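ingest -> validate -> predict -> emit
validate: passed (alphabet ok, no gaps, 249 aa)
predict: started
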Amino acid sequence: MKFIIIPLLCTSLTASFAQTIAVDKVVRNFLLEGLWADEHVISEHSTRSVSECAMKCRLTDTCASFFYRPVAPQCQLIPFIRYIPEFLIQSAGSKYYTLESATNFSLPPTPADPFSYNTFLLSDGSVTSFRVVQTRMNFTAAQDNCAADGATLARITTVPKMQLFQYILRSWGGNPELSDHWISGLPQGGQWVTELNEVIPPTRDFWLPQILSAYSNQEPELRVVMFYMSFFFNRLHYSEGLFSICEKL
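emit:
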């Protein structure tokens, strides 16, 4: 398996976090679009998404890259990285991806293309594919903006995903501008949940201490934000104009 180890600074607010996080970055190779391997294949699988295919690759020790296409079998695991269309056949809609190694890893660029999604495999085996929206809008508009490209606001309910977003937002510095960011979180039945009804855990791994002490505050106008500058969770009125993070379903 391939892991990206990223050091995190430890402060009083992050005392409950591990000192490192592990991720792989999924990189698309546009030069091999519309192709499919005719030989040198580890295995083929029926999968529902690029993310699920990426997980199969990561969990296969000999896998270095993969093809994904919208017709079965959708996922094809490859034991090396391809650079030229040799031993490949035409396959409409197929796309080719690699898992980027540690020596080539860099933070996702602050995207000139605001619709550019960055996909990561996390240490717990989960996948997140996200983009940071650099236009200020209220919570409802931010939800609608994400939904327009088949996404939701970021659903952050695990420590590995929380660490990834904290590291990225802190490391980008002032570009995009350090600011509060809308994520998926609203009050429901004494808890805070995502748009998909996933519970946001009431722990210091996620929330500012002073907000955690009032976790059950269920004012209906409040929504969850990643709060500048620690990028732990806070709650603000849904009408605030903030940046946001979209996450693919």
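The domain at 130-248 is CATH 3.10.100.10 (Mannose-Binding Protein A; Chain A).
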